[in-house]
Amino acid sequence: MSLTDEAIARIRALIQSGQLPPGSKLPPEQQLAAELGISRSPMREAVKALAVARVLDVRRGDGTYVTSLEPKVLLQGLGLAVELMQGNTLLELTEVRRLFEPAATRLAAERVSDEQLAVIRGHLDAMREAAEDMELLSKHDAAFHRSVVAATGNEALTTLIEGISSRTLRARIWRGLVETNAADRTIAEHEAIYSALAERDASLAEAAALLHVCTTERWLRRVHGSGELPGEIALEGA
Question: Range of 199's domain?
């Protein structure tokens, strides 16, 4: 273990033990280094690494603080990591979406409030109005799914799915531009999801979401295998 890794491990131990709770301010660098028996240089690198990981928040002129350590903070870097993935990861991410999103939609059907349902309905209405503008429709499509997952009340799940799903957006827009009646089918699938949510039918909501994601995955596998998917989308995602 390098000195920097050791410093990271020791700071994490202080946080995990509760000696440095969320929102607390770290001792000055020199004092912390002395307390942990580590020189200032690896301590400084450890703080930088933990700041990148959203564990610490370095405030210039004020000091270094432990973040809230909430899932939305710690998992915030997932979307960036997904954006940097190479190879056939677009297909892999679609598989992950198929595993997570139907289960999340089922949970949403059990927990969604009337107010949340109204927000979801608003995105569905916006999709209908944007039927001729595939890019705008796809943005409302993404907002529809974000609102559904948010209705679970599970912050970690919401952040994970958002980070995974964001990269598939450009592929979905491209599908709408090249595939006949894609907009109509997409809207119909979302209507089925909304209806199941409105009825609080968890099993039906899960099934409707699974059908929707599987339709997209099946199309993506077909065009990817045939070479029809533009290279920048296949490699970079969205």
Answer: 78-236
pLDDT, tens digit (0-9, with 9 covering 90-100), for 30-45: 899 998 889 999 999 9
Same domain, 61 and 99: no
Q: Is 114 exposed, middle or buried (0-12, 13-18, 19+ CB in 10 A)?
A: exposed
Regarding whether 231 and 124 lie in a shared domain, the answer is yes
Q: What is the pLDDT of residues 9-66, one digit of tens each?
A: 999 999 999 999 999 999 998 899 998 889 999 999 999 999 988 899 999 889 999 9
Residues 196 and 136 in one domain: yes
Residue with the two structure tokens 């099946």: 218
Residue 190: CB atoms within 10 A of its CB come to 24
Please give the helix or strand (H or E) that residue 63 lies within, else none: strand 63-66
Are 85 and 120 within one domain?
yes
Residue 52 shares a structural domain with residue 101: no
Q: Which two tokens stand for residue 20?
A: 């440095």
Q: How far apart are CA 151 and CA 154, in angstroms?
A: 8
